[in-house]
Design a protein that fits this description.
The protein is an alpha/beta fold and 362 residues long. Strand 10 and strand 11 form a beta hairpin. Helix 5 packs parallel to helix 6. 47% of the residues are buried. The site of nicotinamide-adenine-dinucleotide has 28 residues, from helix 4, helix 5 and helix 6.
């Protein structure tokens, strides 16, 4: 089992990564509290809820569960209220612990509810998607969606610990595995050229569920995310580079309508566009740009811009992104492979002509 520490100024916690993790032993190692509420969804519950709930009960804990509907469309105030209602019905006090058993949707809602219930109770992340293991369960960003914007209501609230068991990835749909790889490739490009080189050789093995590869990939991504979050927990500076590919990607998600392309896939396409922008700016060579496209294709991530989307569509959507500051769209670009920076001098015309040229070449 791998263990990675997220060290913040006033608080630290561990991410445990492995196969067949002993959840209960790890939970007992991290808390002596008695009352637990496991929050999960209708897809994950039949697969993994009983094992967790029964073993915690066998360890003498008072355990209840709440099964939410599955999907991003349920990352709402209603789901948040369902958690609050259950906690109140159970008369749980400030010493209870919430457990998020699921992907990023369950992790984000549960973390947000934990940050608010009686002004904050403990919670544990048990991520069950690759995306949640390498990204959303680590770093304490929690949120629900508002009809006017995704993740617009939330908090920074760190978990007690993160328990990532690679075994659960076997039941995950391949498209979801691919979406997770979008975030994995991102870490190599923005922070670690050696990891990028490792991915070029090994990424295929993820589709074979090769345990050594999965373990290493998740461990390295968590180490990189832990480093960034420790340096800038509340995203005042460095943490913004984790949004590489996200600005273009969110524009695609919004344009197509949520649910048409998974978030991680849209990030893959967003990274392809950002990399082409870097090539136009002579930050990356043509060879490097081609190599990155090759890796994205090996990861089965999309690289072609939807024909229905123009350069101006991108600008319109990106202007509504919450990362726009003082009217300026902030793009994460690569200084070179493994090093990212924020550019504030990219003009709308530059983006529009890039999109047009990419579309005509595809
Ligand atoms: P998800 O939570 O919707 O899970 C994807 C699908 O896989 C769901 O249908 C789910 O029920 C199913 N599933 C999950 N684990 C499974 C398993 N082991 N076996 C079978 N099916 C399983 O999607 P996601 O990609 O994990 O997360 C996306 C969410 O994460 C978005 O809401 C996004 O905003 C959020 N996010 C948050 C952060 C953060 O820092 N907090 C970072 C990135 C993304
Ligand atoms: N997923 C981006 C972040 O955690 O900051």
């Amino acid at each position: 089992m791998e263990q990675i520490k997220v060290e913040l100024k006033n608080y630290s916690y561990n991410i445990h990564i492995g196969k067949n993790l002993d959840y209960v032993a790890l939970i007992l190692q991290n808390t002596d509290k008695k009352d637990f509420l496991i929050v999960t969804n209708e897809t994950i519950a039949p697969l993994y809820l009983d094992r967790l709930q029964n073993s915690l009960k066998a360890a003498g804990k008072h355990v209840n569960s709440l099964i939410l509907n599955d999907g991003e469309q349920y990352k709402t105030m209603d789901s948040y209220m369902a958690i609050m209602t259950r906690l109140l019905e159970l008369s749980y006090g400030r010493d209870c612990v919430l457990i998020a058993l699921g992907g990023g949707v369950i992790g984000d809602i549960t973390g947000f509810a934990a940050s608010c219930y009686q002004r904050g109770v403990a919670y544990i992340q048990i991520p069950t998607t690759l995306l949640a293991m390498v990204d959303s369960s680590v770093g304490g960003k929690t949120a629900i969606n508002h009809p006017l914007g995704k993740n617009m209501i939330g908090s920074f609230y760190q978990p007690l610990c993160v328990l990532a068991d690679i075994d659960v990835l076997k039941t995950l749909a391949v498209q979801e595995l691919i979406a997770g790889l979008g975030e994995v490739v991102k870490y190599g490009l923005i922070l670690d050229k050696d990891f990028y080189e490792y991915l070029k050789i090994n990424i295929q093995k993820v589709f074979e569920y090769n345990e050594t590869t999965l373990n290493y990939i998740i461990k390295r991504c968590c180490e990189l995310k832990a480093y960034v979050v420790a340096a800038d927990e509340k995203e005042n500076s460095l943490r913004a580079i984790l949004n590489f590919g996200h600005t273009f990607g969110h524009a695609v998600e919004t344009h197509l309508g949520y649910g048409k392309m998974l978030h991680g896939q849209a990030v893959g396409l967003g990274m392809a566009i950002a990399v082409s922008l870097c090539k136009n700016r002579k930050l990356l060579s043509k060879q490097e740009c081609d190599d990155i496209y090759q890796l994205l294709k090996q990861a089965k991530l999309p690289t072609d811009i939807p024909q229905s989307m123009s350069g101006s569509d991108f600008i319109t959507h990106m202007r509504h992104d919450k990362k726009v500051k003082a009217g300026v769209i902030r793009y994460v670009l690569l200084e070179r492979i493994g090093t990212a920076f924020i550019a504030q001098d990219v003009s709308d015309d530059e983006v529009i002509s890039l999109i047009d040229s990419l579309k005509s070449n595809s």
